[in-house]
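Please go through the protein record below and see whether the fold suits the sequence. Record follows.
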Amino acid sequence: MGKVYDGLDDRLTAFLRRQHLFFVATAPLEKDGLVNVSPKGLDTLQILGNRRVAYLDLTGSGVETIAHLRQNGRIVLMFCAFEGRPRIVRLHGKGRVWLLDDPEFERLAPTFPAYPGVRAVIDVEIGRVSDSCGFSVPLFEYVGERDQLLKWSEGKGDQGLAEYRRNKNSLSIDGLPGLPK
C-alpha cells in the first residue's frame, strides 16, 4: 500500500517523467473559499532536485493557483498512472510564483520548452512525497497532446495575452489577488 518517501529518488523521478498529465490542487485560507484542482499537460514539469519541482503556468481562464499560492503557499501535485502498473504519487509542498519579470523566472524559463502564453513558473519546495496504490484509477491510452491552448495563445499574441491576463487573471473566483494589472 502507500508509502512516504524522503524525497524524489530515481524511480519516482522516472515515474513522474513518464506521466503526460498531472493535477495541481490549492485552496485559500478562508473556510468558505473554493478549493481548486487544475489538470496540467504538455511538457511543463521540471524536476529540479529531490525536494523541488517547477512547472510552467500557461495563460488560462482562471488564476486560482497563483492567487492561493500568493496567499498561503500550500500546494499538492498529483500524478496518476493511466497506463501500466497502477500508482498515484502526491507531492505536498510550498509553492512560489515567479512572474515574467522576475529574475528567478528568467533563470528557470530556459529549462522549459518555449510555449506561447506562459505567464509564470510555479516553483514547489516539496515537504512530503507519498504514493498509493491507484487500483481504482482506470486505464487510458495516451493519444497525444491537445494544441488548442497553444494556438489560442499564438493567435492572441503578446499584447492580446497581456490584455487578457489584465482582464481575466487579476482576481481569483474568491476575489483574491492573482496577477498584477
Q: What stands out?
A: The mean pLDDT is 97.
